[in-house]
Specification:
The protein is mainly β and 249 residues long. The chain has one domain (2-248): Porin (Beta Barrel), CATH 2.40.160. The protein is 11% helix and 55% strand. The chain has helices spanning 2-24, 229-232; strands at residues 38-55, 60-61, 68-69, 71-91, 96-100, 103-115, 130-135, 137-147, 154-167, 177-178, 181-194, 199-209, 214-215, 234-248. The strands form 3 sheets. Strands 1, 4, 5, 6, 7, 8, 9, 11, 12 and 14 form a 10-stranded antiparallel sheet that branches. A hairpin with a 6-residue loop joins strand 2 and strand 3 (68-69). The radius of gyration is 22 Å and the shape is elongated. The two termini are 32 Å apart.
């Protein structure tokens, strides 16, 4: 997928820009910073969100032709979003830290619907079977960070954990409404780079949600009848997200 190529390119650029001058330094920056019991920081990043889509396979009425057809949906594009958060870090031992990093994400996904017959699709607003879904989940995660031994001014690590998220942006007028809450697991890797005044820690993580994010129509009056196929064609939506995060500690 193109997303992985973009992330690999970003990692290579970061490596060439940051690692070369750090490795060239003889002096060890902030040699005792990792001995602190507790420290804080903040994070900025970009994300690429997607859905795990399960079709309902229930025939729906095509708003244009009036025929009964089966719809299939997929995520047609991954649009970059961004996220911000705070870092609180507790040192458990020399190589293990407990991290609490609450934050908010701004994500966008596009669902495209097609019929098995190939007939055209339209709705009350002329969207032609393409639906943009925006979300702003507030994440409340807890992680374990396992770090390797420090070498000069860098220290690689892996991170794993999970938590819950609350979507604070729900538009009931959209034909597809996401549920309020989700719970997720996350795993990734990164590297601490030590500068004179702070640590810069880029990391890449993959997050997978376990809750069904599809909210049933339940007779929502805000949705026109000819738009009901957007929800009725689905049985399950789960969150997936790749994040490139820059931590400043």
């Amino acid at each position: 997928m193109k997303i992985y190529r973009y992330i690999a390119l970003l990692v290579c650029i970061l490596y060439s820009v940051l690692c070369t001058p750090i490795f060239a330094q003889e002096a060890m920056n902030r040699p005792y910073v990792d001995d602190k019991l507790f420290h804080m920081g903040f994070q900025l990043g970009i994300n690429f969100a997607s859905f795990g889509v399960t079709d309902s396979e229930i025939p729906q009425t095509n708003p244009i032709t009036g025929e009964t057809e089966t719809y299939h949906a997929r995520v047609s594009s991954l649009l970059p979003g961004f996220h911000v958060g705070f870092i609180t870090d507790l040192r458990l031992c020399k190589y293990l830290n407990l991290r609490f990093t609450p934050g908010i994400q701004f994500t966008s996904r596009t669902l495209t619907y097609k019929t098995e017959s190939g007939n055209p699709i339209s709705d009350s607003k002329g969207r032609n079977g393409t639906l943009d879904i925006l979300a702003m989940p507030v994440s409340i995660p807890l992680y374990l960070k396992w770090s390797a031994a420090r070498e000069g001014n860098y220290r690689p690590y892996v991170i794993a954990g999970g938590g819950v998220s609350v979507n604070v942006s729900r538009d009931r007028e959209k034909p597809v409404l996401l549920n309020l809450m989700d719970y997720f697991a996350e795993i990734g890797f990164g590297c601490d780079f030590y500068f004179s005044w702070f640590k810069f820690c880029p990391e890449i993580t993959y997050r997978i949600g376990f809750g069904n994010q599809l909210c049933p129509l339940d007779g929502r009056m805000e949705v026109a009848p000819q738009d009901a196929f957007y929800t009725n064609a689905l049985s399950r939506l789960t969150n997936h997200c790749i994040c490139l995060t820059f931590n400043f500690e």
